[in-house]
Structures are given as structure tokens and as C-alpha cells.
Amino acid sequence: MKKYSRHYRRKVNYRNLLVVGLAGICAIAVLAGAGWFIYRTMFYDPFPQDESLTKSAGNVQQEIDEENGWMARYPDFEDEALDAAIEQVVDECRKGSGPDAKVMLDYRSKTVFDHYTSVLFKETRQEEKGETIRYHSVNYDEKTKQLMDVEDILRNQYRRDLLKGAEADAIQAIEINEKDTVVYLTDGSNTTIRYDEHKAYIALTDPGIPSLYPKEPLTIAEPQQIDPDKPMIALTFDDGPNPNTTPELLDLLKQYDARATFFMVGTNATNYPQVVERICKEGHELGNHSWSHEDLGAMDSADKILESYQKADDAIFEACGHDAGVVRPPYGSMSKLYDATVERESILWSIDTRDWESHDPKAIESIIDTYVCDGAVILLHDIHPESVAAMKRVLPKLKEKGYQFVTINDLIRYGKI
Q1: By three-state DSSP, how is residue 155 classified?
Q2: Is it true that 59-201 and 232-413 share their CATH fold?
């Protein structure tokens, strides 16, 4: 019997094979895409390595939009005021980016002496004409919850003496460090100002920072609640402080929720620093009235004018850790040289009580009653007991008429002068 064997030839289904192959390719592509996405998200860092851009404060955030020429890293602190200031820097830099202008923003951050937060941004811009680098900064005082500008970090004639006379708008950024402050200028240069070498120019206050006031900052009274629709006047007191009369005046001002501006003579600030400290702590405005009541308008030297104000500034700062914001020349005496030399607001007056002449509380009161009006700047002297006595009647009377007792800066802010 013959045996027959059957041979079966399987027909290859190329269509199924193609489907399987395509599915495999798709799976590989999906896996590769997922892997690339994970890598880009978790590991890929398009920012050049720069060991100087240390990030020891804040949480790192980043934005990458390479199609529109934008890459940014910036910190988040979960502090409304600080984060808003950082967002403003980021927004301004983002506006300048695009296909023809690639912008990369990176930063370094630190907390100095436990309460100063300093963020320095480095903006690198790539355009057809080449690469440019600009710096921006945000500085913040954690204790006062206030953003800081250059004048909160450096004081006195720092631009003239330390920055070769640079204009204020030439300062691009400023960075706070533990031993120094670095100022970045628009011409691409930077200047390092060491605290231990320039104590008289340092406005930062902390026991660890060499300055004229190496102490904890003072706690200042809360600002007044001012109604801009109600009349306001500025009481200004010259020639103090005086250890006998100024404290009594301060008691009266506190009783009537009044703030005043004290134009202090430097020699008296040096002799009675505790009174200066109280003036500052109770929220009054610090004014500079020269070092020893010299006639600044009669001086023929710009250096002498500046020296008089600067010595008084140093005395006031050494007493309370704050500088005088406004100045008043003794006798109201100014000249063309004075105007060309002094950059700060020089404040005179609209009502002269002539208390130094009459030494009569009733006469002082009468002059104020006659000429008082919304926005008036009243000249008095806290070194005279009769002037303090006059305030015992003037303050309640004017308060009853609806007047608010504010500082010079408040009058300026509300457009009264």
C-alpha cells in the first residue's frame, strides 16, 4: 500500500504582517516620544551651565518657548509683594523676545543676614547684530516686608564718591551679598562696594553689617490713615532735637495723632541720639537742617555745602538707622551754587510763626489761626518751650476744624505742594 504524504504550503498574509509591523513602529514611536517627553520634562536642561547663578533662595520656575525665542528661569517665594516684583521683571524681558530676538533669562538668589532677599537676573539677548547682556535686580527686606531700591542699600553721596558720578538712571541693578554690594551699570561695568571699607555709605542695618548703625532696624509706627479729601497741614520743627522740649512735643503729637517733620541740626542729633531715635520710631519725618546751622547760601564751595548736609545725615543715621529724606537750609538761605549742588528737595515754608522772635504762645497761635489753610507748611522750632506750649492750644483747635497733621512727604504725595 502506498503511503501518501501531503505537503501544505501556508499562504503568507502580507496585509496582516504590514499591520503588525506598523503597529510595532507606532508603539516604538510612542515609547520614544514618551521617553523624550519625560527626558525633556525631568532631565533636559536647555540653559547653559553657569556655576555663578546659584539659586539658594526661592523655588525655581521656568518657561521655555523656543519657537518664540523665549527661555526663562525665575524664583517663586510665595510672597505677594516679592513675587509681583519678580513677575514684573520677567514680563518686561518677555516682551522683547521673538523669532528675531532670542531672550534667555536666568538668575541667582540668596538670603543675606536672614532678612534681605536678593535676586539678580541675567538677561542674554541674541539678535542679528550680536549678543547683549543686561542685569535686573529685586531686593526685599523680610522684616519690614518692603521692596528695596538703591537708596535703601546705599546712602549719602554714593554716586559721586563710589560710582564716579554716575547718574541715577545709569544703575541697572544692585545685588546684596554678605560682605559687599555690587552695582551693575548700563555701560556694562560693575562696582563692588565692601561694607568694611565704606561703612558711611551703607544703608543696610544689621548687627552683622559694618555701617554707622550696626544694629537691628528700628520698629517704626504704622503710617497714618490720611483722607485725601480732607484738609491737611505740615507742622515742621527746626533746630532740634532738644532733650527738654522735644519729648514733651512728641507726647502732644501722639495725643492728637499728628505726624510732623523735624529738621534737625547735626550737632544736636549727635548730642541727643535717643531723641532722634524716638522721633523716627514714632513715625515722624526726618529732615536735615545742616551740621551746625551754617548759612549755606553764603558758602562759595559746593564741597562745603555737601559736607554740612552729609555730616548731619551721618549723625541722624547713626542715631536711628535712617536718613533724612528732605533738607531745609538755615534761614531759608540758598544761592545759584546751592541750587546746582543740592539734589534733594529743599523745603521752606508758607507760614512763619516767628516763634524765635516773640517767644509768645498766644502770638504763635494767632499767626497760625490767621494764615492756616489746606496744604500749609508751618515753621516752628522745637527748641523753644513757648512753641511747645502753643501746640497745646493749636493742635486741638485745628483738629476740631478738620485738619490732618501730616509730613512734608505726605503733602507732596497728595499734591498739596
Answers
A1: coil
A2: no
pLDDT band at 15 (very low <50, low <70, confident <90, very high): low
Please say if 339 is a catalytic residue: no
At 28-53, the pLDDT tens digits run 766 656 555 554 544 456 777 777 88
Neighbours of 173 (CB within 10 A): 23
284 noted as active-site residue:
no
Domain spans in the chain, listed from the N-terminal domain onward: 59-201, 232-413
User: Hunting for cell 546751622 — which residue is that?
Assistant: 293
Of 141, 152, 238, 314, which is the active-site residue?
Answer: 238
pTM reported for the whole predicted model:
0.82
Query: Given 289, 381, 382, 384, which residue is catalytic?
Result: 381
The CATH classification number of 232-413 equals 3.20.20.370
Residue 140 contacts by C-beta under 8 Å, 6 or more apart in sequence?
Answer: 79, 81, 82, 85, 116, 117, 118, 146, 147, 148
Q: Which CATH number fits domain 59-201: 3.30.565, 1.20.1630, 1.20.120, 3.10.310?
A: 3.30.565
| Cβ neighbours for 138, distance < 8 A, ≥ 6 positions apart | 82, 85, 86, 89, 118, 119, 121, 147
